[in-house]
Amino acid sequence: GAVVSQHPSRVICKSGTSVKIECRSLDFQATTMFWYRQFPKKSLMLMATSNEGSKATYEQGVEKDKFLINHASLTLSTLTVTSAHPEDSSFYICSARLETGVMNEQYFGPGTRLTVT
Amino acid sequence: QKEVEQDPGPLSVPEGAIVSLNCTYSNSAFQYFMWYRQYSRKGPELLMYTYSSGNKEDGRFTAQVDKSSKYISLFIRDSQPSDSATYLCAMNTGFQKLVFGTGTRLLVSP
């Protein structure tokens, strides 16, 4: 099956610093990747759609200057949380879309737990 | 009204039981339907995907779509304690973003 990795799996940072999270599709190329945020016992909240070689599309209410997304290659997208605050603490999950022509399944990474102190 | 409704549970069953997980939706344009399994503190894992109405079987899992009723189901036969997880339904109209249900937490006791 299609495999997506995320790094780091967990990170603790101080308030005001920036954190970068990487999302890689390991055995397929992904033109499109997605970034989600998940609160405890809640469903996935889509933050943005990342398109290789172009600007990301952000969902309503998501600050694009705070959550910087770069999709520089067909296998790598990064999310940078800038000037992190404790309220940014959350579980961040990426997914990569496998385009098969008929179905286009999304495969998820294992997630990154961010704690801002 | 949410686009996708899913009972959050928890749903508790004994080992060996048949489990039925369900979602309803309001957008008749949805054509692609997926079920994901998510263990605690892990990313969702794609279990099943179907296009349009009908049934699809994979081992102990059966996905069912009834577009006329806007209702989808995931059945798990011979449930195991290792099936204990949160099950998320998701759907879209094609290449657009997925719309997720809230997830149903399943607990299978030995």
Give a description of the structure:
- The complex is a heterodimer of chains A (117) and B (110).
- Chain A is mainly beta and 117 residues long.
- Chain A is built from no helices and eleven strands.
- Chain A has strands at residues 4-7, 10-13, 19-25, 32-38, 44-51, 57-58, 67-73, 76-81, 90-99, 104-108, 112-116.
- In chain A, the strands form two sheets. In chain A, strands 2, 4, 5, 6, 9, 10 and 11 form a seven-stranded mixed β-sheet that branches. A four-stranded antiparallel β-sheet of chain A has the order 1-3-8-7, with no helix packed on it.
- Chain A is globular and about 45 Å long.
- Chain B is 0% helix and 55% strand.
- Chains A and B meet through β5, β9 and β10 of A and β4 and β5 of B.
In short:
Chain A contains no helices and eleven strands. Chain A has strands at 4-7, 10-13, 19-25, 32-38, 44-51, 57-58, 67-73, 76-81, 90-99, 104-108, 112-116.
Topology overview:
The complex is a heterodimer of chains A (117) and B (110).
Chain A: E1 4-7, E2 10-13, E3 19-25, E4 32-38, E5 44-51, E6 57-58, E7 67-73, E8 76-81, E9 90-99, E10 104-108, E11 112-116
Parallel strand pairs in A: 2-11
Antiparallel strand pairs in A: 1-3, 3-8, 4-5, 4-9, 5-6, 7-8, 9-10, 9-11
Chain B: E1 4-5, E2 11-14, E3 19-25, E4 32-38, E5 45-51, E6 54-58, E7 61-66, E8 71-76, E9 85-92, E10 99-100, E11 104-109
Parallel strand pairs in B: 2-11
Antiparallel strand pairs in B: 1-3, 3-8, 4-5, 4-9, 6-7, 7-8, 9-10, 9-11
